[in-house]
Amino acid sequence: MRWSNFFAYTLKEAPKDAVVASHKYLIRGGYIKQVAAGIYNFLPLGKIVLDNIKKIIKEEMDKAGAQEVMLSFVTPYELWEETGRAKKYGDELLRIEDRKGQKFVLSPTNEESVVDLVRGTIKSYKQLPVNLYQINLKFRDEARPRFGLLRGREFIMKDAYSFHATREDLDREFNLMQETYENIFKKMGLDFRVVEADSGAIGGSGSREFMVLADTGEDDIVVCTECNYAANIEVATRKHEQRENPVKTEVIEEVYTPNKKSIEEVCEFLGVDPYFSIKAVAKKAVFDDKEEVVVFFIRGTDTLEETKAKNAVGALELVDVSEEELEKVGLVPGFIGPFGLPSNVKYVIDDDLRMATELVCGANKKDYHIKGAGLLDANLLGNLTLYRDIAAVKEGDKCPKCGKPLKITKGIEVGHIFKLGTAYSEPMNATFLDENGKAKPFIMGCYGIGVSRLIAAAIEQNHDEKGIIWPKEIAPFVVDIIVGDVKKEEQLNFATKLYEKLKKAGVRVILDDRKERFGPKIADFELVGFPIGVIVGKKLKDGKVEIRDRKSGEKFEVGGDEVFEKVMEMVRK
Ligand code: ATP
Ligand code: MG
Description:
By secondary structure, the protein is of the alpha+beta class. Helix content is 24%, strand content 28%. The strands form seven sheets. Strands 3, 7, 8, 9, 10, 11, 12, 21 and 24 form a nine-stranded mixed beta sheet that branches. A hairpin with a 5-residue loop joins strand 22 and strand 23 (439-441). It is globular. The model has no long low-confidence stretch (mean pLDDT 94). The structure holds adenosine-5'-triphosphate and magnesium ion.
């Protein structure tokens, strides 16, 4: 590509709402342009990167035996009613109506579409297994689209759906897809982790996420400092560690704690280690058909993990609850404890508190707490008692696998694979005949990759204060030949010859032959983020050109006749 007639421009300023590096550099580098909140046009540079990523994904998916399809972007709302997701999916689902009043949705994911595609088409176990994938547009009316391509409303996903006759065969495909994803992200030159994950709104049993490690990631991932344990904080567990309270209380007693509401205040007032206290976190749980107050009890030193808590009560979401709402159901804000709760209030106790003794907790009475409480006998608390793992794992907690300390890092979710089982085939009545001629629902898996999000994730992991530092595999161009002064025929001729030769050798190369000054050209090389720069400038008179390695920042001169070989060597590395 010759930059002089390439539709690529760079900007000095990033838009005000751009706070993360990828958003800033994608806009400033002329990769994308915003159309509306969370919706972007891809310019030629962005489209090339997108295609490079798609190509890697396609190669690996095809190698694994998956078959590419393209499902319609607009899908009938009826299909979403069949699975009950029309309601469950909430406001992220954009509903539209045609001129005849028929309802449709813009696909946020395609489980329903693909089940509808195979039902009636695949009739026998002999036609199984099959894995169908597409790389296609998605639309989710995200509440807060942000960070450019990281969380858009319109975005590109690779989604795959597999159909099996047995659970064992699903397990085999699930493992194959994990391997395939690992190959894809490795090929893209990314540093990533595979983590245990929550199955979210898609449903099913068992799922893993692929996280690109980056400080700006929205996900907290828990990794072991010793073994290979890694999990999203939403499902991470820890080794149970029961510490004995060194301070013994003679009797269980109510103590007067005037105006001491927070755990810190109460524990300080009573001189108790907060580890031996029970913190109450009240939330409003939103269900399909109702909303109710739920109290979650955790150790004073822990925090509530909302996804775990939500799953523990089977709610669609948890929202904050006001003091008035708490009082309405008979709770005393600031003094809530597990003993003597109003009988209509549902509550969950963290697993880590099971059998714990010598605890301080609220007395369900204004200005009073209880000292010396124990959770020895669950039955004492009534039949609503539910012990579940609802606390967030924190730095320093012990690994559930090996007992060594856990650490928390940030990640960007770029892929997610699920074992769906029959969660979709059953409600949609999609069956096949098994070996005995019996109709059975398909056993399914589904496998997503955030294709456009990957562009941003790669940048979050690979940039500096000047711009992007692309991994070679996905860079729009691997080599940028910068002509110092295009009016100097000697420079332009030399650069053009090198450009042609590299192109012939199959290298993605751009020739910066714009009538620009040298300074801005170098700045663009750094901002747009090409891995290798070749500067054909003043020194050509002495037979020398300069080569720059964007990643290491290294610069060195080579003789004009060695430059091709030297560049090829760097490209191959
Ligand atoms: P998140 O928790 O980030 O919202 P998700 O769990 O809703 O993601 P999936 O339904 O598993 O995502 O979708 C598959 C992949 O699509 C994700 O792993 C992610 O990489 C990508 N993705 C999801 N939502 C968006 C979005 N709003 N913008 C860009 N990519 C997205
Ligand atoms: Mg989401």
